[in-house]
Amino acid sequence: MQFKTIQGVEVPEVGLGTHRLIGREGENTIKLALNLGYRHIDTAQSYKNEREVGEAIKRSHVDREEIFLTTKVWHTHLEKDDVLKIAENSLRELDTPYVDLLLVHWPNPEVNIEKTMEAFLSLRDQGKALNIGVANFPLKLLKEVNEELGAPIFCNQVEYHPFLSQFDLLDYTAEQDILFTAYSPLAQAKVMENPLLQKLGEKYGKSPAQIALRWLIEQEQVVAIPKASSEEHLKENIDVFDFVLEDDDFYAIDDIQKDTRLIDPDFAPEWDK
Questions:
Q1: CA geometry: angle at 94 spanning 107 and 9, to 5°?
Q2: Please, what is the Cα angle at 104 between 210 and 15, to 5 degrees?
Q3: In angstroms, rounded to a whole number, what is the distance separating the alpha carbons of residues 16 and 228?
Q4: Is 19 a known ligand-binding residue?
Q5: CB 45, CB 86: distance < 8 Å
Q6: Which terminus has fewer CB within 10 Å in the chain: N or C?
Q7: The dihedral sign for the CA sequence 53, 54, 56, 62
Q8: Which of helix, strand or coil describes residue 93?
Q9: pLDDT tens profile 34-85
Q10: CA 244 to centroid of chain Cα atoms
Q11: Which pTM does this prediction carry?
């Protein structure tokens, strides 16, 4: 495993997204991932699997200190008292005294973000969330919390893959030394159908998914959290550290049309163009 160092903190470049990994089967998948070498696990209150994540960590016998663990607070629970209550419940479900990263899952214009951040800072000061951040925040909202409020934002987690441009957001996170976590990095398996990624896969002896992940993690600040449920795909997704894309190939992926957004619920903010 390789790491990005952000604000002095080492974060594994490839993690496991756990959305829909529920029940005993989900728990076994997360445990398998840890035993295969994953050290970055991403969950959320809304995934309803924090208990499974906690059990998987316990059963894997991997030291808690070796794992970078993220959870998130849903956008309908961002009032200050709600945040504190939900976070305590998450820690209880995960059976851990702290998470490495606590995120606002989606922005909510109906809630005063300053009060939300006060709750997040309180949890950080208590050592219950070592780092705090946001998810699904476009550039304007990220600047608002990071600059206008002066909150110590460690991360913005957003949809990012070869078919969606996030270059302005990337430039800002690099400038501010903020972690950029790419969810849906394989575009819900659409990378497998792309002719360029297929061609590059043949050239490097890798799958199109591995080419896409390599393109992501070669970018400054970017880590990726693909979801996988089979041992084959779990292994494949972390087998991306033994090659480097040539510059021309990297820029060819940059040039793929990037207007495909897959995650866009009705409560989503106005996205960057």
A1: 65
A2: 20
A3: 7
A4: no
A5: yes
A6: C
A7: positive
A8: helix
A9: 999 999 999 999 999 999 999 999 999 899 999 999 999 999 999 999 999 9
A10: 22
A11: 0.96
